Amino acid sequence: VKYQNSAKKNTRTIDLARSDSIDYDSETGSAIGSDFSAKGSDISDFSNRDWLDKSSFVDESFSLEEVLIEKSTAIGKHEQPVKDVQATEEMELFIEKRFDKLLFDTAKSHTTKFYYDELFASEDDVGREGGEMDMAMTLHQIAQIHRRGHRHSAALSAYNASLRAMKRALGEGHGSTAAILGNIANLYTEMGDFDQAFKMYQEVLGIETMHFGLSHPEVAVTLHNIGTIECSRGRYKEGASLFTQVAEMQKIRYGDQHLTVAVTLACLADAHEKLGNTRSAIKSYEEALRIRISALGKSHLDVGRLTHKLARLASDRGDYRLAETYANRASETYKANKLQA
Q1: d(C-alpha 143, C-alpha 155), whole Å
Q2: Which one, 16, 145, 176, 178, has least CB within 10 Å?
């Protein structure tokens, strides 16, 4: 389940507004992990980057203060409305270039120690008064940059430092703390550590249910993520139970014909298929198919892929007439998209 959660700077909190849609892998029907991303845009070619080219890179690991100085300098050079975007992009370039140097210098020592590990590690490490929030936000951005660069260990270190700072600034039960926990869970999922991801999502779920109640859509998001993790761990029965619960929550909020319902139904069908419950799998896939045809049209590629899957399942059950019907429909959709069936 992927959400456009922006972690933008506010007076005392991170904006946790989520979109109400769910993205998914259209080929497999599987959900994609939710993302509480730091707000920013793709790196563009701005000309005024003298500070980046002239930065002196020393052998020791860079400090957060160094990043904050560069961030402040970048912000000071531009006027609204472009200055925030340019500052973010310039900080990304600085961190990318600085980390590349650090990675080159530390490769010989095989070190796994990061500067972020020491930040907010003890009660004595307070920093400037009221600065925890700014530090948490900057560390979150750094973690996102490392994650996009597939530097998972560095991302995890920065996320954890951001989490410690956020807990100190706003408390363990705050929604902004849950946002960072959600990103850590996403990172663990990308790393294939499903047990740790499950643990983190459970923490997120506890905070969200306390703040929003059991029927809130953000709770449904997290339950869906937990269901995906359960299936990834081979616990398909538990995953199917969660997907059933989420689908009912989504139908109440969005109606029976919403695409988010179709996504969850496809995940439910996949869990049933893994359990060998072909009849239930076909039923859920067919319900998902009806929604997608209504929302996307018969010629949409996602409709063709789902129809193709139904043809295979019907064939496995020995219902060859139904399998042929679905296979012909899938073939027509593929031809309409200029793909080979």
Answers
A1: 4
A2: 16
For residue 153, the surrounding DSSP H or E stretch is helix 152-170
Given CA atoms 123, 124, 130, 134 in this order, what sign does their dihedral have?
A: negative
Beta strands in the chain (DSSP E): 4-6, 35-37
pLDDT at 334 over 70: yes
Average pLDDT of the residues of the chain? 75
Digit-coded pLDDT (tens) for 256-285: 999 999 999 999 999 999 999 999 999 999
Report residue 181: phi and psi, to 5°.
-60, -40
Q: What are phi and psi of 191, to 5 degrees?
A: -80, -10
The three-class DSSP label of residue 5 is strand
Please name the residue that has the structure tokens 């980390």.
Answer: 99
pTM of the predicted model, to two decimals?
Answer: 0.70
DSSP 72-130: HHHHHT--TTTHHHHHHHHHHHHHHHHHHHHHHHHTTTT----GGGGTT-STT---STT
The CA distance from 6 to 213, in Å, is 22
